[in-house]
């Protein structure tokens, strides 16, 4: 099988017609479509920022000169941790041909490149958020800080303490004491 030339490209005015079809023909992308419901809102969003915002966006999936569908994303998360919810909608003729997984991989590359983040940055952020939640929760108060570090993927407690202090402005022990004291007062 020949390898397909799959790439992502910016949304164009012509692509807004596809958004109109997606809003009026939900079966076009399958039974689990939760996307566009309002074609006029899609047009307004395109007119505003071309569907490329700092917290969300859309890119078209192109195979050679054909439009195969679109990928989308939006940021979610709390505190220091930001996660990207990503999605893909392919037209029926492109399903089952290896386009979807490759387009999602290209979207991940795009997000890392345009957010100046790396996989390591994201992993560290998730580990620190895990530790913050465990240290703030009274149900885990008997757990040693080194065990919290290990549960969240840190091999060296000193490395964990350094990274935690940098992220939250206090060491893990001090953070836990403050968080648990304030939860008892509320």
Q: CATH topology of the largest domain, what is it called?
A: Aminopeptidase
Task: Identify the overall geometry.
Answer: elongated
Number of domains: 2
Note the total helix count: 7
Side by side, the strands of the main sheet go: 1-2-3-4
User: What is the name of the CATH class of the largest domain?
Assistant: Alpha Beta
Helical content stands at 40-55%
- What is the assigned CATH homologous superfamily of the largest domain? Gcn5-related N-acetyltransferase (GNAT)
The H/E string reads EHHEEEHHHHH
Mean pLDDT score, rounded? 86
Describe the biggest sheet? 4 strands, antiparallel
Could you please describe the fold and organization of this structure?
- The protein folds into two domains: 6-116, 3-Layer(aba) Sandwich (Aminopeptidase); 120-185, Arc Repressor Mutant, subunit A (Orthogonal Bundle), CATH 1.10.10.60.
- 47% of the residues lie in helices and 17% in strands.
- A hairpin with a 2-residue loop joins strand 2 and strand 3.
- Helix 1 (16-24) runs antiparallel to helix 2 (39-49) and helix 4 (119-136) packs across helix 7.
- The model has no long low-confidence stretch (mean pLDDT 86).
- The protein is built from seven helices and four strands.
- The protein has a four-stranded antiparallel sheet with strand order 1-2-3-4, with helices on one face.
- It is of the alpha+beta class.
- The termini are far apart.
